[in-house]
Design a protein that fits this description.
Length: 371
Amino acid sequence: MLTGRVRPALVVGLCAAFAIVVAALVSQAGAATPKPFAATVTVDTSAASIGSTDDQYIGLSFESGTLNSGQFDDVGDLPQMLRNLGRSVIRFGGNSVDTSFTGITHSALAGLVRLAKATGWTVLYSENLGHYNASDVTRDARAVSAALGSQLAALACGNEPDLFPNVGLRPSYTESEYISQAASCLGAIRAGAPSAAIEGPDTSGMGWLPDYAAIEAAPLRWLGQHYYPMGCGLGGLSRAAFAQTMLSAAQTANEAAFFSAAAAAAAVAGAPLRMSETNSACHGGAIGVSDAYASALWVVDYLLTGVEHGVTGFNFHGGLSTVCDGYTPLCQVGANEYAAQPVYYGMLFTHLLGSGNLQPVTVTTQVRATT
């Protein structure tokens, strides 16, 4: 018999799902069929809650470079795909915001407004910091803020500035240089959109997060951090080993530690913590695993781990291209028609658990004797 405290309440069905998948993986590996077992889940309603979710907890993230494609509009089934996940936050950023994005066009902005109004989603919009021009930022922020109004969640400056040297934007780039440039960019935003909320710093690592949190505390709507917990690609692992690692207790512990450290910085800022860009593995994901249903199970556990450790929202990065592999939650399969991928189903499952407080539970399992 095994008894232990586990994180997520409201996941009785998930236990059964994990059991089915584990049995399938064991069978495929040629190992002995696992023995049947019974499981009892007890929810402690008298204990303090271990976190809470709302309808904006599970969002999406896209490259700013795709904003002017005309896809982000109240057409086809994209609006319903968003509504399925609640009334959350759609974020635009990614490397392209700093490498190639020059601002949203008038027609694309009109389409984005229609999409936001049709779905109830709000927009987290990033400005170009890699090729920063104050007047361009002011002009773009003014247009975006005026058009979106209450559907604008926040404006941000740049994407993963701590990796600017890695993407060819700077030969070197120090934290102090970034802090100075970010302050100028935020000033340019306020010149065009004085009442707009601010989000940042959208860093890849957490080295610059505490200082940013302390300096930019007052105006922040969210303290935004990026996280790809499985690194980039398969990392030399086989697909089976990658999936096993991704779903392991050790990996969950790593994720919990990362969230807790980021939440400590958010507490300094006095702002909610948002994983503003995330997914299983960076650079498009680990082909064969990020686009497999093992990732759907990982997403559920990942989101609920975040609830417990101080995260108030996630934006899963992806695209709307015709490439239907890797980590993208959605991909295009026809004119204004999009297909849900495994990551999306994990997001949807978690959303259907509902909003509210999570309570600690105890799971007791017992292997049944076979006849």
